[in-house]
Amino acid sequence: MKFLDQSKIYLKAGGGGDGCLSFRREKCVEFGGPDGGNGGRGGHILIEAVGGLNTLIDFRYKQHFKAGRGGHGMGRNRTGAAGADVYLKVPVGTQIFDEEYGVMLADLTQEGQVVMMLEGGHPGTGNAAFKSSVNQAPRRTTPGGPAEEMWVWLRLKLMADAGLVGLPNAGKSTFLSAISRAKPKIADYPFTTLKPQLGVVYVDQREFVVADIPGLIEGAHEGHGLGDRFLGHIERCTTILHMIDGTGEDVAEAYKTIRHELKSYGGGLSEKPEVIGLNKCDALDEELIDMLTKELRAVTDSPIVPISAVTHFGTGAMLRALLKNIDRAKRPPEAPLDYVAENEDWSPI
User: Fold this and answer.
1) How many domains does the chain fold into?
2) Cβ atoms within 10 Å of 310's Cβ, excluding its own
3) pLDDT greater than 70 at residue 29
4) CATH number for the domain harbouring residue 260
5) I want to staple 339 with a disulfide (CB 3.0 to 4.6 A). Which of 185, 213, 298, 335 is the partner?
């Protein structure tokens, strides 16, 4: 399934049906009273967040959605049929913006959440409703309400517990494939990953979701390399896994580059708890690992876990470190400040 994280669509509710002007006509009934029925209401446009979806690809091939128009009222006090509603199913985590992309209209963060985007037109009134003691034969009716319409933007921000960030070719996709059943494209050149990937991770009889976004470059918060769109996918993450290539030229500078982008982007990304993964340690000896760890320790106080996604070295310790941050974020309000997960058998440097 192809990945699409934003789409512009056109919505139009159904107009209300008109009221009917009618009088009873029967044999032997000389003066039949008014019997014009009311119109039916127009169809609504509703958007529902459903599980099992992680892309907006369905809205690439169909962008126009119109609800049914309400039926007109008829004689013999018959009410017009209501217009058919239109339900749009989107992934959990979808945000809805106005046409100018300046105002967020809804944020669907829970499965089953439904928002009514456009209400169907109100039904018109038939002349039977205007009958009174002083007006036995009214000829007044009202038309149905007009059909509302609008353009909206759908933007998907993935719902995950942990987000993978780092420079291109830091080994994020390899790590995701090593700890989950996700099958991202893996190659030895930058920007192999072009779209976010999700993977479900199991550790100590627990599970959580990890999101891998394409590598970030300097200026990502300004949109360079579509970095601003990719960073949006980790806004909802509880913790961040900052992956650093241990075979790179300057691990401290690589760390500071990504931290600058997170802080410049905003959205609380720089305040999220993080775990640093010093990757590709299978190509390093212990002395060099210790030296690189000291370089990172000089610029951050976050936990540092040496790992190798290829040999699975340190992956268990990394997952437990992430799980610890996730549990702390989900700590009940009444829990003590030192609340941690039941299983945290890990020892980052």
Assistant:
1) 2
2) 15
3) yes
4) 3.40.50.300
5) 335
Task: Give me the residue label for tokens 């905003």.
Answer: 266
Chain centroid, CA 339 distance in Å = 30
The structure's pTM equals: 0.78
My answer on whether 123 and 169 are in the same domain is: no
Question: How far from chain centre, in Å, is Cα 132?
Answer: 54
Please report, for the domain that includes residue 31, its CATH number: 2.70.210.12
Residue 335 confidence (pLDDT) above 70 = no
Summarize pLDDT for 227-282 with one digit per residue, the tens: 467 788 888 899 999 999 999 889 999 999 999 989 988 888 889 999 999 999 99
Looking at the fold, whether 25 and 144 belong to one and the same domain comes out as yes
The SS3 of residue 148 is coil
139 and 194 fall within a common domain:
no
C-alpha R_g of the chain: 29
Angstrom distance (rounded) from CA 61 to CA 303: 45
Instruction: Please write down the long-range contacts of 100-105, taking CB distance under 8 Å and 24 or more positions apart.
Output: 101/153, 105/152
CA distance 94 to 34: 50
> How long a stretch of residues is the chain?
349
